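Bit of a strange request maybe. I'm writing a small parser for structure token strings and I need a real example to test against, not something I typed by hand. Could someone generate the tokens for this chain?
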Amino acid sequence: MARIKRIGILGGSFDPVHKGHLRLANAARKTLMLDRVIFVPVFISPFKRKNKVTPVKDRLQMLRLSLKGSKWASISDYEIKRKEVSYTVHTINYFKKKFGAASQLFIILGSDSFKFFHLWKDAHKIIDMTNIAVAKRPGPKGETPGIPYHPVQMPQTPISSSAIRALIQKGRADKAKEWVNSTVWAHIKKRNLYSYKSL
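Reply from user aminoacidic:
Good idea to test on real output. This should exercise your parser:
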């Protein structure tokens, strides 16, 4: 009988992907003994519909650059191809059908996202279809009473994509640069992303 594969799903805008994302994925992989982690960039987040998002081709390329050489990681453009608001329940259902009974899925979240999990579309269905893995993030605790989850141990990472974008816009490229891979930083410079023209 074939061993059931354990697969992690990490979604987000990845605008830009940063070292915190990679640390979270790697911590979940080790803590939960995952066979692989799939990064799923959103097309439009239901919680950020009014936010301006960097073009898909740039976000995908930055992910490819960050994950190069990580044999345990891959990228899915499922939500990108849908070209509509990205709901996790649809994504989990897609992967359930794709991998079938020979897999066990884990959706990977930071505690800041988990705090609002009860507001997600069809949250109860997500709980039924998958396992929830949660890593602590800086700030208030993101506990959601009554929802079971697997804790993921990782060092606190006081950075976010929005903070990186803000640093670049304020001319603090030196600080922002510390939180992304060198190849990603080169792409940001080449494409003049995030409105900092003196990169």
